[in-house]
């Protein structure tokens, strides 16, 4: 990967645990500010889907390396200003396929693999090059764009995150018990925060926003206000 590149254009980096509202906040803040939205989590989900579909053992380094060499995860930006980049897996749209419980259960394990992270970070930097972009994930402010002009860490109580994830799953036509959803989030928190490569952590220069009692509109408003204070205009 080489050395860390300076953050291109203007980067708003949003990190935080699963269910804190990162994706929705990033997408809506990008829309309001006229930025592009890079859903980095969708990229790891796409790789996870490829591993599941191919039957590859992610712990088999050689097999995984061969699979990654044959895999293309790319971000396709809309032609208009702003909007969310579509994540394409080998040229195909996989939007709904990457949001299933099967992918949810495996994505943290896959995302912790150094081979996968190196490949995805390279593509994330390529996609954001010379863009005004909002990116969200687990290591955006710490690893992917450590020189981002604005870093935000969204936090949230696990009970509220459980309720949000339940609503998301219902919207996808999937039902799980609240106990199962909560256990899945707790396990993901543990994996994300203790992995050796790029663990989830709050960097010192990030602005922390507790979203537990905030509406989506309120947390989007906070992020946009922070960006404007740093000179961003729509």
How would you describe this structure to a colleague?
- α2 crosses α4 (101-111), α2 (40-54) crosses α5 (114-128) and α7 (158-171) crosses α8 (178-194).
- The protein contains nine helices and nine strands.
- The chain is of the alpha/beta class.
- A hairpin with a 2-residue loop joins β5 and β6.
- A six-stranded parallel beta sheet has the order 4-2-7-1-8-9, with helices on both faces.
- The chain starts with 9 loop residues before the first strand and ends in a 5-residue tail after the last helix.
- Helices cover 48% and strands 16% of the residues.
- The chain has one domain (10-228): P-loop containing nucleotide triphosphate hydrolases (Rossmann fold, 3-Layer(aba) Sandwich).
CATH architecture: 3-Layer(aba) Sandwich
Question: What's the helix-strand series?
Answer: EHEHHEEEEHHEHEHHEH
Tell me the number of structural domains.
1
Q: Summarize the amount of helix as a percent range.
A: 40-55%
- Characterize the main sheet: 6 strands, parallel
Poorly predicted sequence stretches spanning 5 or more consecutive residues: 1-8
Shape: globular
Q: Which value, in Å, is the CA radius of gyration?
A: 17 Å
The proportion of strand residues reads 15-25%
Number of strands: 9
Q: Tell me the distance between the termini.
A: 33 Å
Mean pLDDT over the residues = 91
CATH superfamily: P-loop containing nucleotide triphosphate hydrolases
CATH class: Alpha Beta
Number of helices: 9
SS content category: alpha/beta
The side-by-side strand order for the widest beta sheet comes to: 4-2-7-1-8-9
The CATH topology is what?
Rossmann fold
């Amino acid at each position: 990967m080489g050395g860390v590149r300076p953050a291109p254009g203007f980067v708003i980096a949003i990190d935080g645990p699963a269910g804190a509202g990162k994706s929705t906040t990033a997408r809506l803040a990008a829309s309001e500010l006229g930025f592009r939205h890079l859903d980095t989590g969708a990229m790891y989900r796409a790789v996870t889907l490829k591993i599941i579909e191919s039957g590859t053992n992610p712990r088999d380094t050689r097999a995984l390396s061969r699979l990654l060499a044959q895999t293309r995860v790319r971000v396709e930006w809309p032609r208009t200003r702003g909007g969310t980049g579509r994540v394409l897996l080998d040229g195909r749209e996989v939007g709904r396929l990457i949001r299933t419980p099967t992918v949810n259960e495996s994505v943290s394990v896959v995302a912790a693999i150094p081979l996968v992270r190196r490949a995805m970070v390279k593509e994330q930097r390529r996609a954001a090059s010379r863009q005004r972009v909002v990116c969200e994930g687990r290591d955006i402010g710490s690893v992917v764009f450590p020189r981002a002009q604005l870093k935000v860490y969204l936090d949230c109580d696990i009970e509220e995150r459980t309720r949000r994830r339940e609503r998301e799953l219902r919207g996808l036509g999937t039902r799980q018990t609240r106990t199962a959803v909560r256990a899945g989030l707790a396990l993901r928190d543990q994996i994300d925060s203790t992995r050796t490569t790029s663990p989830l952590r709050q960097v010192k220069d990030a602005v922390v926003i507790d979203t537990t009692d905030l509406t989506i509109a309120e947390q989007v408003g906070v992020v946009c206000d922070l960006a404007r204070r740093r000179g961003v205009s729509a």
